[in-house]
Amino acid sequence: MTDCIVIGGGAAGLFAAGVAASGGLRVQLLEKNEKLGKKLYITGKGRCNVTNNCPYHEVLKNVPRNPRFLSACMSVFPPARTMAFFESQGVPLKIERGERVFPVSDHASDITAALERFCRAGGVELVRGTAAELLTQDGAMRGVRLTDGRELLAGRVILATGGCSYPLTGSDGSGYRLASAVGHTITPPTGSLVPLEEDGGWCAQLQGLSLRNIAIRLKDERGKRVYDDFGELLFTHFGLSGPTVLSASAHMQAGHQYTLYIDLKPALDEGTLDARILRDFTKYQNKNLANALVELYPRSLIPVMIARAGMDPEQKVNAVTRAQRHALMELTKSFPVVIRGKRPVEEAIVTSGGVSVREIDNRSMQSRLVEGLHFAGEVIDVDAYTGGFNLQIAWATGWAAGRAAAGLPLSDKEESK
Questions:
Q1: Is the pTM of this model over 0.90?
Q2: Torsion, CA 147, CA 150, CA 155, CA 159, rounded to 10
């Protein structure tokens, strides 16, 4: 028998195990993958956007789902402490655009290695296997039964199995089943930070085109503005992807219809843009329209812009009317893409949904239903936008769960009094 079992060797699980062990517990870390921190290796395009260099209340502003639940643990373990932790573990960090924080090496493996060192220093025992059932007795944790029949016994269990996005990394939704079996309510999981499918065929014609420094605006069926962003976007065979689109997806709710409008020239107001188009038309007045827009748009975008503006690519520029030029200008400032829906949850970076926060104490991450059961990371019904905020949730909830499992207060300042 041990003191604490942590189920899941991802970001939240590794950190929670190390925190619990540093608090004096004998800890077993149960992981089914051959590699620890498998999902960490693909975050930030393999560079691992470990957190965001901002105050904790700014993190909460980037959490669309249940931000108040995170206020206690995030205020105690904010991004500054995350950065200090990894640098103390020998991982120098750097800050990039949008206050995103990465290891200087640009290698996610350095983050995983630091977490493994942290666990080894505390004597965490790694157990290979898959949890099949949480064992309880008289409303309290007793341990975990594995799929091979083994039983690991402990009075404290931290469930940190992740969501159900990227199932090949081990995030297969198994944590939801384990929690549900002991009475917890599961908010149905959906993809958050996920590419979007177009209801139409314009994006497929632009497959592979990546745009930078564009602005997007997401509106619902009533024309209400839902989300604005600025940055990068990628056209795919099914629709749209890229950082701005992934963030927009987190604002989309079931039962609504959405259209995403792309401002291809956000630095130019309509008057300036119209003057720019007129200048190009004057320069290329004897050419066909298709050959007169090469300085304004990427080449692959030109035929789509002409078609959507209702113009003829063979039309001579000197024959373009003022109304046609105005239509092109309006399309440039507001290129509409009707959204059919989100891509499957398996393609999402993170999962929206999970164990209901109403059934979890927000300081200890302990279940209100089962004594000794704690939660950390994506298995909880919280999620955030891109920019390092989701990993920050993993660190903050992992800290809270690990501290509580060790019988320590959320803040180490309270402990020192």
A1: no
A2: -30
